[in-house]
Automatic annotation (TrEMBL):
Pfam families for this protein: HTH_WhiA, LAGLIDADG_WhiA, WhiA_N
SUPFAM superfamilies named in the record: Homing endonucleases
Signal peptide: none
Molecular-function GO terms, alphabetical: DNA binding
UniProt superkingdom: Bacteria
Domain DOD-type homing endonuclease residue range list: 107-172
PANTHER family on file: CELL DIVISION PROTEIN WHIA-RELATED
Official protein name in the record: Probable cell division protein WhiA
Entry-linked NCBIfam families: DNA_bind_WhiA
Protein family according to the UniProt entry: Belongs to the WhiA family.
Species of the source: Anaeroselena agilis
Keywords assigned: Cell cycle, Cell division, DNA-binding
Function comment: Involved in cell division and chromosome segregation.
Gene label: whiA
């Protein structure tokens, strides 16, 4: 079962007490997965389609309990690809359905409202319910173990713009793009996705997302620290190898006894402790020189070696 399915199954069990929220949620559901059925008697019906049984039950409950309409559920099975079940919640054409569509804001008189539902979204609770319905009808979210990505897919451009404005009203950095015949409203920030899950009431999914996210962030932090430590260790090893080679060249060309006492001491310490870090060499010097002083002496030895090579 995908993470998106887990989220939808949880959201399908969320119930609002206020009837205005039922209307907002059903309006978004219908805009995502609903179609109008027009009969020969100038009456309309409704068909809502989904592949999630829990979402179908939620749509059925909102239609029957909120509006008292007679409904039927038809289950079909695809013959190709994944052969998943499709659930069709149907309301037969009747004059009463026109009143339903008008209350949902889908019809304004005899004109279809393209997707500007701001009249339904005056209250914060209705805005949350509307986003929940949009996710139930056409949303998906990737598992937190991978890249963070949540999207709402619709074929209605005006509805997609309404979703973007609504998400931004909650401070979420929503963006929109097109994909073939559809419009995709998406979030790619982990904080934004967890905020949306909280807003629409998917609290169990939120906790699961955050748990994985914490482990993932901790693992990434440990990897960064290990990589940094490895890089520093490699730099230390490279510097030590370079210094030892320079000191050996100086010893072979002119002899270490020709060096000033401070450089001779540094050269002997490095030759005796070839894997030691700079701080460890300072400690071995028993406080006679600091870290910057030891570094200066080793650099001076490298410079002498370069000069000797240049003369030759």
């Amino acid at each position: 079962m995908s993470f998106s399915t887990d989220v939808k199954n949880e959201l399908a069990r969320v119930t609002d007490e206020q009837s205005c929220c039922h209307v907002a949620e059903l309006a978004a559901l219908m805009r995502m997965g609903g179609t109008m059925l027009i009969s020969g008697h100038n009456t309309v019906g409704v068909n809502f389609t989904t592949e999630n049984a829990a979402v179908a039950r939620k749509a059925l409950t909102l239609i029957k309990h909120g509006f008292g309409l007679a409904t039927e559920v038809v289950v079909t099975r695809a013959r190709r690809l994944k052969k998943a079940n499709s659930y069709h919640v149907r309301v037969a054409p009747s004059p009463v359905v026109a009143k339903l569509l008008a209350e949902l804001g889908i019809m304004r008189g005899e004109v279809i409202n393209a997707g500007r539902d701001m009249g339904l979204l005056r209250k914060a609770c209705c805005r949350r319910a509307y986003l929940r319905g949009a996710f139930l009808g056409g949303g998906s979210v990737s598992r937190p173990e991978g890249e963070y990505h949540l999207e709402l897919v619709t074929g209605n451009h005006d509805f997609a713009k309404t979703l973007v404005r609504l998400l931004k009203s909650f401070g979420l950095p929503a963006r929109m793009t097109d994909r073939k015949q559809d419009f995709v409203v998406y979030l790619k920030d982990g904080d934004a996705i967890t905020s949306l899950l909280r807003i629409i009431g998917a609290h169990n999914a939120l906790f699961a997302f955050e748990n994985v996210r914490v482990v993932k962030d901790m693992r990434n932090q440990v990897n960064r620290l290990v990589n940094c430590e490895t890089a520093n260790l490699q730099k230390t090893v490279n510097a030590a190898v370079r210094q030892v080679e320079s000191i050996r060249l100086v010893a072979a060309r002119m002899g270490l006894d020709k060096l000033p006492p401070s450089l001779q001491e540094a050269a002997e310490l490095r030759l005796a402790h070839q894997e030691a870090t700079l701080q460890e060499l300072v400690d071995l010097a028993d406080g006679r020189v600091g870290k910057s002083g030891m570094n200066h002496r080793l650099r001076k030895l490298e410079q002498i070696a370069r000069d000797l090579e240049g003369k030759e």
